[in-house]
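User: Can you recover a sequence for this backbone? Please restate the input before giving your answer.

Assistant: Of course. Working from this structure:
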């Protein structure tokens, strides 16, 4: 600003607007990322709920089941149950 002028120069206004635009672009990217993460967590929650209900009701026809022995503990079996993106591991003898 000049000593006798009242107000801002054009360059000061442009710099302020560019800083404001940069801040808004970062804010919008964060909001978009948060929305994507929310959708992914919502889908995973729904898959886990359906998988848990299928296990409780013993309806494993739509559930992927994979059983294997553990390398270091051959007497323990690992059962992997999958539905969509949800995975539950059960360990048994």
């Amino acid at each position: 600003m000049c000593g006798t002028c009242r107000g801002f120069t054009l360059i000061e206004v442009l710099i302020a607007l560019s800083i404001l635009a940069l801040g808004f672009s970062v804010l919008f990217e964060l909001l978009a990322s948060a929305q994507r993460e929310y959708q992914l967590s919502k889908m995973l929650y729904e898959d886990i709920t359906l998988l848990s209900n299928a296990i409780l009701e013993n309806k494993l026809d739509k559930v992927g089941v994979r059983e294997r022995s553990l390398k270091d503990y051959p007497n323990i079996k690992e059962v992997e149950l999958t539905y969509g993106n949800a995975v539950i591991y059960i360990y048994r003898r």
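That completes the design. Residues 10-92 form one domain.
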